[in-house]
Amino acid sequence: MKLSEKASGICPSKTMSLAAMTRKMKQDGVPIIDFGAGEPDFDTPQHIKDAAKEALDNNFTKYAPSAGTEELRSAIADKLKNDNGLNYSYNEIVVSNGSKHALFNAFLAILEQGDEVIIPAPYWLSYTEMVSIAGGVPVIAYTNVMTGYKATEEILKKHLSEKTKAIIINSPNNPTGMVYTKEELEKIADFAVRNDIYVISDEVYEKLIYSGKMQHISIASLNNEIKKRTIVVNGLSKSYAMTGWRVGYTASDVTIASAISNIQSHTTSNINSIALKAAYAALKGDQSCVEEMLNEFKHRRDYIYQRVSDIPYLSCLIPKGAFYLFIDISKLCGEKVDGKKIKDGADVARILLDKYNVAVVPGESFGYDDHIRISFAVGMEDIVEGIDRIENFVKDNF
Ligand SMILES: Cc1ncc(COP(=O)(O)O)c(C=O)c1O
């Protein structure tokens, strides 16, 4: 008996052992400060939960159209028009089980076996595995701190081949918090149109932008040519503290949308019917909850960035969006702690967890061994304590 090549080829998460250790230590009562979180620490707003309760009371508990109700897809189309200047009709929207599922559907819909997808690094760790499962080949395009960890036309060009089918753009970015400007996106859009490739635009952190001067721009909104070849991916997890509800969606040209809808109709079908109603309430209800969460995240971002910047040997760029700080620890590499040489971010993460009870995510998960990621989706008290511990780690050992 043998597993499929597809299944055997999927990388288990390199950071799984560290995450398992963190879990075990927490269970054992060790006072861990966990900077690993990838989700808002706020509760889902009350009016969204109320809509879900109402859906249950009204027995909205049966199968729904597999791409989502017309009501919700129209609400998403309204949102895309009002927030992003994008015109989609409801039948160009497919609602899926989180943007993760939406992304996977998108790759299944466009990739032939062996098609290449350019993934600018640092990247969200699931992209590479999703592309592979869908039969594609992930091609990693490393950026650097000089470009603000953003892809440029020059970087993309180096990775272009006859097999290139798509590029992934993730703005605001996980793990760096970088946000692409309109001018930067225009160059990437030109590149995609000229080379006849798709763009998968992952916009899940769009509501979390901290600089008043910066604005979220969807690459699809730049012109009709780029809109035709872009699959916009978004969801409600990060903007409305709804990670567990599993609501994401794609917006794309009707041909692509139909393909995605067909795939979904034979696999998962509609998302949970209660979540369809809750998502509608989130999009159509009072938006002040989004603003409140944003203000709290901004306060934390300002604090955490300042504190980390003041720690010798560590460096990072100020995140313009999302809720992560991507920290360059390369100056610690080659140094010894307790007689053992530090090789990479995973070694730093291990010491931080073992000796200082702080959990961080090693950068190798995002394609950068000499970085670590910390999340500020954590309460302020824990942020202060956690950063004190990281500062002590550097003071004690270097
Ligand atoms: C960049 C990025 N895209 C997509 C997702 C998936 O989010 P969800 O499936 O909860 O919508 C995440 C989650 O961490 C993410 O960081």
Your description of this structure?
- The protein is α/β, with parallel strands linked by helices.
- The chain folds into two domains: 5-43 and 289-397, Aspartate Aminotransferase, domain 1 (Alpha-Beta Complex), CATH 3.90.1150; 61-284, Aspartate Aminotransferase, domain 2 (3-Layer(aba) Sandwich), CATH 3.40.640.
- It is built from 14 helices and 15 strands.
- The strands form four sheets. It has a seven-stranded mixed beta sheet, sandwiched between helices.
- Helix 3 crosses helix 11 (273-284), helix 5 (98-110) crosses helix 6 and helix 12 (288-309) packs parallel to helix 14 (380-397).
- Pyridoxal-5'-phosphate (PLP) binds next to helix 5.
Secondary structure blueprint with pairings:
Layout: H1 5-9, H2 16-27, E1 33-34, H3 46-57, H4 70-84, E2 93-96, H5 98-110, E3 116-121, H6 126-133, E4 137-142, H7 153-158, E5 164-170, H8 182-194, E6 198-202, H9 224-228, E7 230-235, E8 248-251, H10 254-265, H11 273-284, H12 288-309, E9 315-316, E10 324-328, E11 336-337, E12 340-341, H13 345-356, E13 358-359, E14 361-362, E15 371-375, H14 380-397
Parallel strand pairs: 1-13, 3-4, 3-5, 5-6, 6-7
Antiparallel strand pairs: 2-8, 7-8, 9-10, 10-15, 11-12, 14-15
Helix pairs in contact: 3-11, 4-11, 5-6, 5-10, 12-14
